[in-house]
């Protein structure tokens, strides 16, 4: 197997993309959780 060095800019870009992906995934999870909590809360009020 040949080993080769990736340009730093490519490595940084890949890391950044991965971090953005992780950030968006966690934000999405938080949004769903918050939505669930708020709908639960409002349904309690209605009772």
From TrEMBL:
Q: Under which name does UniProt file this protein?
A: Uncharacterized protein
Q: Where is this region: Disordered?
A: 24-47
Q: Where is the composition biased (Basic residues)?
A: 38-47
């Amino acid at each position: 197997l040949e080993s080769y060095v990736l340009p730093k800019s490519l490595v940084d870009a890949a890391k950044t993309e991965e971090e953005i992906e992780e950030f968006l995934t966690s934000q999405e999870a938080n949004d769903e959780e918050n939505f669930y909590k708020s709908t639960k809360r409002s349904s309690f009020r209605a009772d």
